[in-house]
Design brief:
heterodimer, A: alpha+beta, OB fold (Dihydrolipoamide Acetyltransferase, E2P), Ribosomal Protein S8, Chain: A, domain 1, 3 domains, four-stranded antiparallel sheet, 30% strand, B: alpha+beta, Ribosomal Protein S5, domain 2, five-stranded mixed sheet
């Protein structure tokens, strides 16, 4: 016979014994040692029938196939772009996958995506050694023009999106903004008024901060109702996390004056 | 020669404090304080590893950095930066943490752990390991267990745990033995020894250190969970 030694939604640390006996199976974030199920990471316990998993509370983004990500163009060569998706390795966007346009031999690739541009792309493949292939062909995949990008912790993306997109739908409805959430924790917000964008960003950051609190949807709703149309314009400036890439000036470097 | 501790029992640790998430820029971070020794650890990565020949195609690697701050000692300025001593400690810290860590999810990358000692009164490598293991857990790394460390040893032939500087430099002779342990199974991941000690005393000292490690483990667990307590 086996018994669970922890409660649902309890916070556990790596190495903590979750269950005794062979009746329970380790799922994501847990492993078996002899007849014990043990937590592998800092997270929240979730029991589903015989399966015990640990939902992570922190951690960096790990790329997976079919993820929609928001990336930043880092480099390009004659046939592809290299895109930072928030992992150690850059993702590769091949010319074939980048656009359905006909690209002439020797064309200037920066016309399509230039260094510093943000794009919404989809991961088509991740190899065992974590090389990432991207595509721009698909619904909603595009170059992101205007708006602002916010970085949140990737493990909190499901909370920002909500069940069947309920949370993000609510924010969109209240703020009239276009919002795109990448699985890598980058969120693109674009609205007609900077105040709208600001309100949406504040709401998203609030979700990130309070993601483990219960009754979050109601809290966010009352926050949005309270502040709708009242966001001060003056405080709009400091929030954006990333600015478009500016090429450093190279003149005078290494020269003596 | 017999020795009597002035302020605590032979099997008692100095007062401890632990906090997680002290460096906001880092992926994970932690502070660990034991007596007058304070260690801060920050984790960055996984990130690309250069030069490329250091990369491992099967798993990520762990790289620790140990540094005592210039003002951390007792009066004299400590020269900061890499020295023979700090390199050695960085190496044994890496080896002490590696068995607990699983980086196979991040091949060809490196996870950097920076350990800074703000104030020192002996037991710095142990405090560093305690802080680093908490910081790694805070960074969301896959781990088999936390790692806790404390020194055991003898002061004037009396087995004690968690030596401070005055005891390490005791005139009647002292043996200092840092021990790091994975508490669930009691596996030892670091053991170093300075001085001469008999077999019986050694066993006694290891026993004391293991018991001390379990106390530290309790505190580490609490500190990690405290970050997510509802207000």
């Amino acid at each position: 016979m086996g018994n669970i030694l922890v409660e649902e939604k309890q916070i556990v640390v790596p190495g903590e014994v979750l269950a005794d006996g062979m009746d329970f199976l380790p799922a994501n974030g847990a492993f078996r040692e002899n007849d014990k199920v043990i937590s592998m990471r800092l997270g929240m316990v979730s029991v589903n029938g015989r399966l015990i998993k640990v939902i992570p509370l922190t951690g960096k983004y790990v790329p997976r196939k079919d993820d929609l990500v928001i990336g930043k163009v880092q480099d390009m060569n004659y046939s592809s772009w290299f895109i930072d998706v928030g992992y150690a390795n850059d993702g590769m966007l091949n010319m074939r996958e980048a656009t359905s346009d006909f690209i002439e031999r020797g064309a200037e690739l920066s016309k399509y995506y230039d260094i510093g541009d943000f794009v919404a792309a989809k991961i088509t493949n991740v190899t065992k050694s974590k090389m990432i292939d991207l595509t721009m062909k698909g619904p909603g995949l595009k170059k992101l023009v205007g708006g602002r990008i916010v970085q949140i912790t990737p493990v909190k993306v499901p909370r920002v999106v909500g069940k069947q997109g309920s949370m993000i739908g609510m924010i969109k409805q209240f703020t009239n903004c276009q919002i795109l959430v990448g699985q890598n924790g980058r969120v693109w917000v674009s609205g007609k008024e900077p105040t709208d964008e600001h309100l949406a960003v504040e709401a998203i950051l609030m979700i990130e901060e309070k993601s483990h609190v219960s009754g979050l949807t109601d809290k966010i709703k009352s926050f949005l109702e309270q502040h709708k149309g009242k966001m001060p314009v003056a405080s709009v400036a400091p929030k954006p996390v990333e600015k478009p890439f500016v090429k450093p000036k190279t003149d005078n470097q290494g020269e003596r004056k | 020669m017999s020795y009597k501790r002035p302020d605590r029992k032979e099997d008692e640790l100095r007062p401890m404090e632990a906090k997680v998430g002290v460096v906001k820029n880092a992926v994970g971070s932690a502070m660990f304080k034991i007596g007058k020794t304070i260690a801060v650890a920050a984790v960055y990565g996984p990130r690309e590893l250069h030069p490329r020949f250091l990369q491992n195609a099967e798993t990520g690697i762990l790289r620790c950095n140990y540094n005592m701050m210039a003002f951390s000692g007792s009066g004299n300025r400590v020269r900061p930066g890499p020295s023979r001593r700090s390199k050695e400690i960085a190496l044994v810290t890496t080896k002490a943490l590696e068995p607990a860590l699983d980086l196979s999810e991040f091949p060809k990358t490196v996870v950097d752990v920076f350990i800074e000692l703000i104030q020192t009164d002996a037991g710095t490598r142990c405090a560093g390991i305690c802080a680093a293991s908490m910081a790694l857990a805070d960074a969301g790394m896959n781990m088999k267990d936390l790692v806790c460390a404390v020194s055991g040893g003898t002061v004037g032939d009396v087995p004690v745990v968690d030596l401070d500087y005055s005891e390490e430099s005791y005139e009647g002779g002292a043996v200092d033995m840092p021990i790091a342990m994975m508490p669930r199974n009691g596996e030892i991941t670091l053991m170093q020894l300075d001085g001469v000690i008999s077999k019986e005393k050694l066993q006694e000292a290891i026993k004391l250190a293991k018991k001390g490690c379990l106390d530290i483990y309790k505190l580490q667990k609490e500190a990690l969970k405290a970050k997510y307590k509802e207000e």
